[in-house]
Amino acid sequence: AAGYAAAQLDPTKVGQGADSGIVPINVGIDPNNNNLYGTFGNMSYYNENRFYDARERFIADWLAAKYDYSDNLKFNATVAASGSFGFISDNRIVLQSYGNTVTFDRRPNLKLPVITTTTDMTKASSFSNPSANIGYRKESDRGLNFRLGSEYTTDVGLGFINKIDAKLGAAFESQQKGNDQKTADSAFSNTVFANGYKLAQMPIGMYTVNHITQSNCLFCDQNNAGMPTNWLTVPRAFMYSLNPNGVSASTASVLGGLFGVTEAVKSAYLEVSTDGEVLGRPFRINTGLRFAKTNLYGFNYYKTTQMKIHSGYNDLLPSLNLSYEPTDDVVLRASVGKTITRPSLTSIAGGTTIPNAFNKNANSGNPGLRPLRATNVDLGAEWYFAPQSVLSLGVFYKQLNGLV
Prior knowledge:
Blueprint: H1 2-9, E1 23-29, E2 36-68, E3 73-105, E4 114-117, E5 128-133, E6 135-155, E7 163-183, H2 185-189, H3 204-207, E8 209-213, E9 230-233, H4 236-241, H5 244-249, E10 259-278, E11 281-302, E12 305-327, E13 330-341, H6 345-349, E14 372-386, E15 389-401
Antiparallel strand pairs: 1-2, 2-3, 3-4, 3-5, 3-6, 6-7, 7-10, 8-9, 10-11, 11-12, 12-13, 13-14, 14-15
């Protein structure tokens, strides 16, 4: 009791913030020795006002051309470009309320405790120690694609191969990803704004509104009449009158979130498809071969040192697909081939980042990542026993290499 009385007269005696000392006034343990309940002094409330905004622009253009040299031989070309540009700002003003007396009781409802306080959460005088978390992130994605192709079709008349459709082509695809991240907590806190104050010097009542009334409150509908439903809040208009994004723009980039990477893929392919018959029933073959040369280059940062990204790899990807219809309503299929799945550019180039105190998930890119490579074998049977109905059975074997 003496300690509690001293804390009420001078809360600094027991500390504030993360080092605050909680004073047990009248507490207990439920009959199952599980849940603490009672009244506690010198409790802290944390009032967060978060202003999150995101926008994105997307642009795409393409041009395609086709030339029929003859009934059997055709040429085509495509060029396409795209760009996606995103901006995400995440700005917060945090107010603290210290020295509160709070009653907490989970005995009536284990999931929704009864919480009451003697503090008026709608008064500016209940809060102090304003602080800010300021920052934004820019992300850009660009793509460029060139394709040249030819197609030759001819009738053969060999029974199991009556018609051949052959395609030959080459392509160049480029993907670019850039990321820039700003954190301006310190710069914002040290900025003297137009009203002549820094944020910590402004009287809280000067910029807060009396309260926000919360209706349909989950905690408040469970016989919890004492739960605060009105809170002091910081208006969005005030936050943006301080130009937080402009302050962020004037600060240096967070090097762990600054990177740029380009993935360029040159490829050539040959594809041959046939239509024919075996035992008087439709039989189709589709086979192909693709060669892909992948190069990666760009930069990211390790601590304060800019690291160059430069790597590459080659892949030869064959495939064979067979289809046979022994009856009008049954299709048998078989396929074998090799495929790759490339890692994302962020996984390759992203720096080591722990975004902020509210998100402690660390991320780190690895320029040495290689694609996931797979050898695939599939067998299937399909029975179309009624209109819009199918019964299918499939078995497969996949050998994966480079699985992370």
